[in-house]
Queue: 3 jobs
Job 1
Amino acid sequence: MIIKRSSALSFLVLIFLQHAAQLNYAKITYERKTNLYKKFKKNNDIQRWIKEEDKIKTDYFELFVNDTCSVFQPQASELKENYSWTTAKNTVYQYPNQNKRYLIKTMWGEEMHLTDSLVTRRWQITESSRNIAGFQCRKAVWQANDSTRIYAWFSYDLVPSTGPESFRGLPGTILGLATEDGGVVYFAKKVELISAEQTQFIPPKKKKIYKIPELKAELTKQYGHEKWFKEVLDEEFGIW
């Protein structure tokens, strides 16, 4: 009888520890590295402007998550930034229960506010794993298009299905994200068990809020005849 009670107690302790290990809220700090030579490989003029020692641009972001929503945003900094125009710094709010996302993009020096439904991607979860910021993560793959494959590393221990930018759809939070060629790489550098105030997940008010198809149509009407426009449109509304 004592042995049976001991086994039952051990089982209950194991269940408790597994449940306790699953986290519903956190603040995650990401480092993004962008290889500018790979990003602008079709534009020789830009490649000539950027020095070899500056070809890897580093940006930092924060992701606040809870069990109902998340917000991904650039980390505030007063440091002078070189080549700030070469990479986008989006803010993305995701609301899974409403199938809704809210984006803030800076385009041509103007802050644009947009709404859209959540993005659905077909992920293939692999057996490969690695440790990121102290969390064991499983690797998943998404074939974005004929030439681009995205790798994501997510943790089952962080329950919310979200990640950098508008990425989501895996059974846990994405702590690592990368293009197959390594041109753009996000990795979590720190995970803090911080429960953000609910106001953190409310976008700032803006008089003009576009729906994404509406803004794309407006931009196409204005700039669709320009040679560079398709590349800009893909950059702003494609994979990321």
Note: Confidence is low (pLDDT under 50) at residues 10-20.
Job 2
Amino acid sequence: MDLYCNIRGNGEPILCLHGHPGSARTMAVFSERLSRQYQTLAPDLRGYGASRVRQPFHLEESLGDLVALLDRQGINQCWVLGWSLGGILSLELALRHPKRVRGLILIATAARPVGNHPRPSWQEVTNTGLASLINLVIPGHPWVIRHLGQNSLYRYLLQQHTPAAYHRLAKEGFWAFVNTSRHAHQALNQSMAKGYNRLPAVNQITVPCLVLCGEQDRHITAQASLETARHLPLSESRCYANTAHLLPWEIPDLLLNDIEAWLSNHASAMTVTPDQ
């Protein structure tokens, strides 16, 4: 599938893969800054955003889409940054197409994803809808955050309910949710229903990996992320206190400082083998 892709900057390429629900727009927190030094490629995955589908698909088909995207851009090898579902696809890309991956930056994700999200109450669901709609009109308003956001499902996605995070929710998160197709929901549910677990395989990934997680993440727990880090042969990890699944929108500067420092330590002329 010919994916829609937002491309910024020049330099070594970084493929930025969004979560579920998500879109290229939700990766702006990374591409806005990283594109100053690198070339960032943020696609809408199959069934998300502008990469529309009319028929059901399997999540694995997204990997072929990503390889085709790299081929079209003439990119033999790149860094891959994945958030949540994007991190799972990053791991799969490294396992199935290892010569295309320079290194992995894995955010709020795991090779064996485990969550501890409680069953939502009707009040939380109602408050989530109200908070989302009012936040579109007056993004980051203190009353919306205090009276609706902190008493909605956002309480499990965020620990730091900052105006900046709610601006991201209004500008990027809401529209990503609206533009996630039913086929994308179905593909993810089918994959997770099978009991996804790639822990036994990730020791085959021999490129540098950076694993970042939020201590209070309820969707993919920090323990699951750190378990993945322990199984990756060449990994570093950071677990940030008082953050949750949307930690890139909670602590963007701290997170990006750590990513840039790690990239700086590992970036060099990319190795290209003759058969690439």
Note: Residues 269-276 have pLDDT under 50 and may be disordered.
Job 3
Amino acid sequence: MITSKLETGHLFCLGYGYTAQFLARYLISKNWRVSASTRSGDVSQTVEGVLLKPFEKLNGEDFDSVTHILISIPPTADGDPVLIRNQNKFFLTSKKLRWIGYLSATSVYGDAKGLLVSETSPAKPSNNRAKYRLLAEKSWLNLCSACQFPIHIFRLAGIYGPHRNVFQRITTGNTQTIDEPNIKFSRIHVDDIVKVLFASMVKPAAGQVYNVCDDKAAIQSDVLKYAADLLQIALPRPVKLEVAKKNMSPFQESFWRDNKIVSNKKIKADLGILLQYPTYEEGLLAIFKKRLF
């Protein structure tokens, strides 16, 4: 349960994907106003209480009453889309802006050879997507330092939650169990991401970087087996990573290059976070019980 004395505000989501939608629903339940940019459609429309506006048609007036901004549009080789279009200039029109959150990823750390990484660890991204993330982080931090914008960077681990989880992949046969006991992955339930974001809104600290993950990094086969046991179905015979890579896309293969355990001590120490789903077992069990897959 998230509790605070934060007054209601106006959140603008630049990018309205999975995580942004969950944050929006939570804030709307607390009587917040929420707006978001969208790449689809040519006119503004209200969907489930969120005012959706075409990304290319945003202007300064859209940010006049905004108190909080969430940026979740992924960067490209050309850079951050918001910065490319110079839409950050609109932030200057908001007289009430108190918080900006930028959603990045723990992939910026690259391969740590299975060791623990924290926010003070060097970032050594090993693929282009992670390199673009890190460059976008630096661009936002530099800009916000120069313009006194209250930026916060959130490096998210692998996101799962309702209708985005391993149950779907298992039941559709769209996965394979990989026999690789030495590579662990960190994860985070979307509800706990919302908890972290809101806690940062309550206690803003401009310029801070936060890892967002649960307490238990785990190998892929353990997570699949746990989910399969709940479903009471058998998994296909495990295959070695070297064999599995032959059927992977370059995108899929890139996830297996990095091996690290991500520390979440800072969100606990600085933001007082008590995770609702401290490991994948609690998170998947809750999803299974409600059949949210």
Note: Residues 128-147 form the longest helix (20 residues).
